[in-house]
Design a protein that fits this description.
Number of strands: 0
Helix content: over 70%
Number of helices: 2
Radius of gyration: 22 Å
Shape: rod-shaped
């Protein structure tokens, strides 16, 4: 059909998209890990008498953000896995992957 991309033509853009989403997922995971460390340090190093009011709210907020980031990283990993499967299906639908280029 005219205007419809073929699996072979869409695999390369999907490969690039997968690369980008994997990079984003890794960055989100790193941010989640960093925030978990920050939250742990705040909870353990600040004396209990300081962990009140705004400080207590900030500590609670960092914990909530860390959980949300971790969940987002998990979701991105699931999306990436589904995207990778779709790419493989499309490559298989074309009959084979592109052969490696011969050295000049």
């Amino acid at each position: 059909m005219a205007g419809q991309p073929t699996p072979h033509r869409t695999a390369a853009p999907l490969d690039r998209t997968l690369d980008k989403t994997e990079a984003v997922a890794a960055e989100v995971q790193r941010a989640s890990d960093d925030l978990a460390v920050i939250n742990t340090v705040l909870e353990q190093e600040l004396p209990e008498d300081v962990q009140v009011g705004d400080v207590a709210q900030a500590i609670e907020h960092t914990g909530q953000l860390e959980k949300r980031l971790a969940e987002s990283a998990e979701t991105l990993a699931e999306v990436n896995a589904a995207l990778a499967q779709e790419i493989e299906k499309r490559k298989e639908a074309t009959g084979k992957e592109r052969p490696p280029r011969a050295a000049d």
